Amino acid sequence: MSSFLFTFFAVFTVGCALGVVVNRNAVNAAMCLLLSLLGVAALFVRLEAFLLAFLLLLVYAGAVVTLFLFIVMLLDVQGEPANRKRPGVLASAAAGGLLLAGVVSLSLKGRLAAADPAALSAPGASLKLYASELFTRYLLPVQVVGFLLLIAMLGVIVLSRKDEAAGRGKTG
Amino acid sequence: MLPDTINTYLLVSALLFAIGFLGVILRRNTLVIYMCLELMLVASTLALVAFSRFNRTMAGNVFVFFILTVAAAEVAVGLAIIVALFRRRQTLQADRFDELKN
């Protein structure tokens, strides 16, 4: 297998994800998030999930990151002050590192089949299969998710309304 | 060169998840914390797609489809909450939101 592309995109994705955490400026962090999502979409293409790669770009890179940038610029937050040393935070970071080390050793030494992806057929590559699955077996979840989107839209409208109750009384 | 097997995909996914987790713990800007949460979500979808690909099933792919839909709704609601919070408190530092402490 030509694993150069995979190596490149894996390193690219992880590096840009680190950029999200390290950048003090929220706009730069959002840009790093965008690049990281591009890398994940490329990995999806390597896994022959073309529809999901396209949807990831459309939904995440197109809508979510744009929304993040919009809110960052709307609220105009400054960079955070320098980090004080907090023992609890450092302890939990160390715990996360240990967890990561465990997962890494498992995923490198596990008994999972080291199959060559070229030899396997990829069901995710065919658009037709998505349609037949979504509209037969997963019809009810599709409708539930549609309803969820409707409720989310209503919720956002209610949340972003100007707070009229604040004028009447300070209880709300 | 990394080998192109499910182990490496899971490794990349775990790394992404851990980086997102670190961001949630270390950062104090609420917006950046939220971005790191999204990163963790995407990492989990990468693992699902890899499992689905190497097991030659459709279930993981369809699940990722639903995750993407729910994530879009979740981001919209979460950002609306953050904007409402900023309107009320004029700050986004997570350690300033401490009404429930003690």
Describe this structure in words.
The complex is a heterodimer of chains A (172) and B (102). Chain A contains 7 helices and no strands. Among the domains of chain A are: 1-78, Four Helix Bundle (Hemerythrin (Met), subunit A); 126-161. Chain A has helices at 4-22, 26-46, 50-75, 87-109, 127-137, 139-159, 165-168. Chain A starts with a helix and ends with a helix. With 172 residues, chain A is mainly alpha-helical. The model of chain A has no long low-confidence stretch (mean pLDDT 82). With 102 residues, chain B is mostly helical. Chain B has a single domain (6-94), classed as Helix Hairpins. Chain B has 3 helices and no strands. Chain B has helices spanning 6-26, 30-55, 59-89. In chain B, helix 1 (6-26) runs antiparallel to helix 2 and helix 2 packs antiparallel against helix 3 (59-89). Chain B is elongated. The termini of chain B are far apart. Chains A and B meet through helix 1, helix 2, helix 3, helix 4 and helix 5 of A and helix 1, helix 2 and helix 3 of B.
Keywords, separated by commas or semicolons:
heterodimer, A: 172 residues, mainly alpha, Four Helix Bundle (Hemerythrin (Met), subunit A), 73% helix, B: mainly alpha, Helix Hairpins, 3 helices
Please outline what is shown here.
The complex is a heterodimer of chains A (172) and B (102). By secondary structure, chain A is mainly alpha-helical.
Give a topology summary.
The complex is a heterodimer of chains A (172) and B (102).
Chain A: H1 4-22, H2 26-46, H3 50-75, H4 87-109, H5 127-137, H6 139-159, H7 165-168
Chain B: H1 6-26, H2 30-55, H3 59-89
Helix pairs in contact in B: 1-2, 2-3
